[in-house]
Design brief:
single chain, 480 residues, alpha/beta, 44% helix, globular, binds 5-phosphoarabinonic acid
Length: 480
């Protein structure tokens, strides 16, 4: 295999994997031995892209369910996104611009995390505190419904009411409940609380609703409400599971709300998808990533993966990946019904912050981890460290340097220390936080999970383990 230590898209996303390889790590021979399984995985994913089905994948009710996540990148009628759906989103963004004061996105799990990732990567720091002109007229963004927390919700309502009192007019609020099933407890109850309060206080709020849900009246209570109340509704298609929906309406609506370039995001996703579908073995970055993680688990017992993004904005991307990995690969049974207990525990870390906490464990704890770094080469807003204390020699080490140079030095130091101790680590690199590269990264991560599901022979698209608590909770609520 062509093991160069680094691969990706020219001028775009790169996967640097050399620190996963070596005599006491994963060898070229290990990968050669896995070659037939890698070929099988590549074929299975190509079939899934073409036919929209993955081996043995069934919906919750036991019927075959499509797997369409790669189709999100291709604008075509019948796909999750087409020209008309993108135009509708862009028009919505234009309509909200200058007219909406605040949009409250109300969802949980896959119906929250993707939006939060887009918000963190696409908005400027302290977005809600910026004057509207600095936001180019786009609304403030809030989140609700990603927990059952009355205190937090009361806090949000009070915060918005105080703003209205301050500006002495009702705030124009868009509530955006997002729920594929349209029946999930957390978003539905938060939505109900918000809309009741806001309708009861027209002196502070003028409230509109835009729903994002499965467009099936029988299944989705939210869709029924949208029809009855004439709220605009955006669909979440069958075949797009919550954790894979960031590149369709739920995630793209956040792009629209921020004036973010949806087309470049999808272009990047398409570039990665094409690369993954047309290459084999070690020339396919997501397949190689999946194979190395699979071997790290099977051969070296690496059952923890830490995604450590360098920069504050990358924290939620880690949380999104936690869901993607945990729900997709954490499986009791393989696809033949045999006990597998497959999966890795995903952990989010942020550099440099967690170098002052978790890195101790990464460097000296059990050798059961892959540390996966994420680097953004060019900072969005460069800042040079000043030297207000010229008399202090120690300060001279930092003065005159860009903050980003310090960040990179910390990342390289962390990586080198782990490598010198034979610890498994790898680096994803994006040239900058531009929509196109983010699209490449998101698609790369989704394909990586799909390939690993194939290698481990587990269904990466269901989540039967969450049904156990749901049954118990329903019974508890009926009693309460
Ligand atoms: O990935 C998933 O399927 C889950 O995390 C769901 O997104 C989450 O449970 C929310 O479901 P819904 O969108 O139906 O409200």
């Amino acid at each position: 295999m062509n093991l160069t230590g680094s691969l990706g898209i020219d001028g775009g996303f790169r996967f640097q994997y050399q620190n996963l390889m070596g005599e006491e790590k994963i060898t070229g021979d290990d990968l050669e031995a896995l070659r037939p399984a890698m070929e099988q995985a590549a074929n299975a994913v190509r079939v899934m892209r073409r036919e929209g089905f993955s081996k043995a994948h069934l919906s919750k009710d036991g019927t075959p369910e499509h797997v369409y996540f790669p189709r999100q990148a291709y604008l075509e009628e019948g796909n999750p996104n087409d020209e008309a759906s993108i135009q509708r989103l862009e028009e919505l963004g234009e309509k909200w611009k200058d007219s909406v004061d605040a949009a409250v996105f109300i969802g949980i799990g896959g119906s929250y995390l993707g939006d939060k990732v887009v918000f963190d990567l696409a908005s400027k720091p302290y977005w809600n505190q910026l004057p509207k002109t600095e936001r180019n007229g786009y609304p403030q963004i809030y989140f609700a419904g990603n927990n059952v927390d009355g205190t937090a919700l009361q806090g949000l309502i009070r915060h918005l009411a105080l703003q209205a009192r301050h500006v002495k007019r009702p705030l124009h609020i868009q509530l955006v409940p997002i729920s594929k099933s349209g029946t999930t407890m957390e978003p539905l109850t938060s939505f109900a609380a918000l809309i009741s309060y806001m309708r009861a206080h027209p002196e502070w709020f003028s409230v509109d609703v835009t729903a994002v849900t499965g467009l099936d009246e029988k299944e989705s209570l939210l869709y029924r409400l949208a029809l009855e109340n004439n709220w605009p509704a955006f669909g979440i298609p069958e075949g797009i599971g919550g954790r894979f929906c960031i590149l369709s309406n739920p995630g793209l609506l956040m792009c629209a709300a921020l004036g973010y370039d949806i087309r470049s995001l999808l272009e990047g996703a398409r570039e990665m998808s094409e690369l993954c579908l047309t290459t084999e073995g070690a020339d396919n970055p997501a397949l190689l990533n999946a194979s190395l993680k699979y071997l790290a688990a099977e051969k070296l017992g690496a059952d923890i993966e830490v995604l450590m993004g360098y920069g504050d904005a990358l924290q939620c991307l880690g949380a999104w990946y936690v869901q993607l990995l945990a729900e997709s690969l954490g499986k009791r049974l393989d696809r033949n019904g045999n006990t597998a207990f497959y999966g890795r525990t995903p952990i989010v870390a942020v550099g440099t912050t967690d170098m002052h906490s978790m890195t101790q464990q990464h460097q000296d704890g059990k050798r059961n981890k892959v540390i996966q770094f994420l680097e953004i080469e060019k900072p969005a807003i460069p800042l040079v460290v000043d030297n207000p204390f010229p008399q202090e020699k120690a300060f001279g080490l930092y003065a005159g340097k860009e903050m980003d140079v310090l960040l990179k030095a910390a990342l390289t130091a962390n990586e080198t220390a782990l490598t010198e101790d034979g610890r498994l680590n790898a680096r994803y690199v994006l040239p900058e936080l531009a929509p196109r590269y983010i699209g490449q990264l998101l698609m790369f991560l989704m394909y990586s999970i799909a390939y690993e599901g194939e290698l481990a022979d587990v269904d990466a698209y269901d989540q039967p383990g969450v049904e156990a608590y749901k049954r118990i909770m329903k019974a508890e609520l009926a009693k309460a």
